[in-house]
Structure formats: structure tokens, C-alpha cells
Amino acid sequence: MQISFTNHTLEKLETLLKEVGYSVRYEKGNFKTGACMMESNKIVVINKFSNLESKIISIIELLKLIDLDDSLLSEKNKAFYYSLKQTSITF
Predict the structure, then answer these.
(1) Do residues 19 and 77 touch, judged by C-beta distance below 8 A?
(2) Domain contains 12
(3) Mean pLDDT, the chain, as a whole number?
(4) 32 domain-assigned
(5) Which pLDDT score, from 0 to 100, does residue 3 have?
(6) Which of 17, 28, 32, 52 is 20 to 30 A from 75 via CA?
């Protein structure tokens, strides 16, 4: 899957996370990856000063690490999620 680094992609990623109960917040901070996750609270914090590409890559990498309950996802988001899991990000 080819990832396009657009606001629409970022919105789709946020929607996917929200659908499974995660809250997405944009805060200032000096995270090494541009994002961090407080899994026990289901909160994803994104560095608001990161560029769009970094925000998208950070969320995709976090999605690969967490074990989502895909039964909570709509069919459209489920397909999107599985395609993300198989996507490798290259720089």
C-alpha cells in the first residue's frame, strides 16, 4: 500500500484510533518518535510541532505495535487497518 502524506490520511488514522477507543491529542513535547502512547489510558499523544509526514508515520508505527480489537472497526476501517499492518515505511 502506498501511503499519501495528506491531511485526509491523518484524519483516517485518527478516525481508526477513535473507533477502537483511543483518544488522539496533539501536544508540544520532545518525543523522539514524534508520538507516544499511554496504553492504559488509551491516549495517543502526537508532537504538534512535527510535520505532517512525521505525524502520519508515527501513528502508523504505533498502530503496528498495539493489539487492537478489530471487531470494533467498521469494514472500511478494518481493511485500512490490515493494509497499514502490511505497509513498510521507507525513508
Answers:
(1) yes
(2) no
(3) 86
(4) yes
(5) 85
(6) 52
